[in-house]
Amino acid sequence: MKVRILGITVDIYSMAETVEKIRDAIEERRLLRVVTANPEMIYASEQDPALRQVINSADLVTPDGIGVVWAARRLGTKARERVTGIDLMQAIFPAAAAGKWRIYFLGGKPGVAELAGRKVSRDYPGINLWTRHGYFSIQEEPEILEEIRRFKPDVLFVGLGAPRQEFWLAEHPGLARVSIGVGGSFDALAGTVRRAPRQIQELHLEWLYRLLKEPWRWRRQTVLPRFMVKVLCQKLTSFKG
Length: 241
What we know:
alpha/beta, 6-stranded parallel sheet, two-stranded antiparallel ribbon, 8 strands
């Protein structure tokens, strides 16, 4: 099932269904580019045609955040849960370990992806994992691309920040069977940034927890109410039509 939110087509699948589609792509040797679209990204795409095209050209666009789930429900779909980058990664690891997938982490500050990789390898020893930090220059990029191609990952997780990672993956297709932009997920996996406690996540207040921990994010958080107003306007317009 799909829903159109402010010009972005979002796939409404559960976490389990999303992982199953990723598993199918790897087993069938198909390319799958995944975008985890949050309200900020969808809102920005209204004023950025290039970003809108990059998101809509992806093979799978997941609802990253309760704001997108809320929007999907307001627009008439039965969205069940959010599928965020970090949660999707953690849901993929058991399948990756069972299938002995090759996984590549690209992104984060020096040392962060490596630390995250060590923790994942410890918990899921069946995974063949390689890491590289995201602080590379244009001159270094060809070497990194060649390294990824030699490694031949089943899944390439790229944490270069949105929307840079989305543009980067679109510009370099075919590096892996499945490629996913995951923002700051390596920090969470490494433990350098703490996620909200599970109870707060279940109350859908993780955004508030992050704001209290990182007050400088307040400007970004103002996007959510503007996003909600635009969604309600879209619903009203479609109702009148």
